[in-house]
Fold this protein.
Amino acid sequence: MKAHRYGAILFAILLSSPPTFAADSEPRHRVIVSTDIGGTDFDDFQSMVHLLLYADELEIEGLISSPYGPGRKEDILSVIDHYETDYPKLRTWSEHYPSPEFLRSITKQGETERAPYAGVRRSTEGSSWIVERARFLDSRPLHVLVWGGLEDVAQALHDAPEILPKLKVHYIGGPNKKWSPDAYHYIASEHPELFMIESNSTYRGWFVGGAQKGDLSTHQFAEAHAAGHGALGDFFAGGISFHDQVRKEVKMGDTPTVAWLLQGDPDKPYQGGWGGRFVRAWTRPYSRFERMTTEADEIEFCAIMELALPLGSDAPKTPSLHMKVENQMLVGHLPGDGTVRFRFCPKTPKTYSYEIVGNDPSLDGKKGQVTAVLPSPDVALEPDEHWPNWWTDDPSPPVAEGAHHGARTVSQWRESFMLDFATRLERCRNAKTK
């Protein structure tokens, strides 16, 4: 009951008080974006359009392609091509808009494969760029906005752990965390002092709830406010093709990381703003089982689940095993102790069924289940000092949108941030008159 009263009080405060805005005279935030654009979802293209339209408000220092799936840095470059067309008009609005040539120069290819069990694999152009920019002599923190895999952030911390104090990571987890359980586990285990906002559901407030009527709705906004607004606007409204379908509805699930820096105080995650509001993290959920699990076994939604299953006495000298769960084939890790290990992250609260397949007769074909559940609101009352700078979704019921914890801390500002985005799109259509 304490958590319910606590959440209700904070929600009342949020509704009566606007977010704190940074003064125009303050230095712009240094930003690197790591994105799976072109990989597993279409909405990163939309978020990239939004980012570039607000590029005069930020100091963008890196655009990294870090996908699981087919996305590559060429997908980022394709959006920059549209930006180049609109750049002459945008430049009339602000001299701080970066040139297309500069944006291309800071676009890097990151890791294209999931991290192995160790959580890191190899240095990439993307991970090395994070290290280089973090080492740059600048007193401001480096905000790393992660819209996809965590692999390049994990690799950068592995290669140069001394950069940790300079980084402020804002991670859109949920479905993305599903694809990076080992990289996430490495960061949470080996670098717990990292400043991390782990948004597993809060981000959904950008497209769920809030002002959804008329031309601000997810289905009408693009046609009403983006179509006919320069190359970026037309691309946003009808040029994004994914899985052979043209997507027009607005999602922009990664955009709250940018909005967090535009309207709010990024040093105070508990205050909130357009990017949401967060609570100090409780113990990062991790469950290990040395047996096949059943529906009765419960783990926290977006937890890291690890199976450590004993190999059979008739296992081959070189076992090859996978865990098949939904659309994933998780590769089994062989630590040499007679077990095979799998890490899995459930992206939604429900019961999952899985099967072990491979060349060990004692495990091949074995089936199991596990049930992912939402955390109790009470967990937020006990932040874990082992993760002193880690923030996550507020589980208080008053700030949820359905089952999406914390999402109302974003959706309550929907009218403001969508109208502001519409105003930005006008810059692509009309140059500023003097």
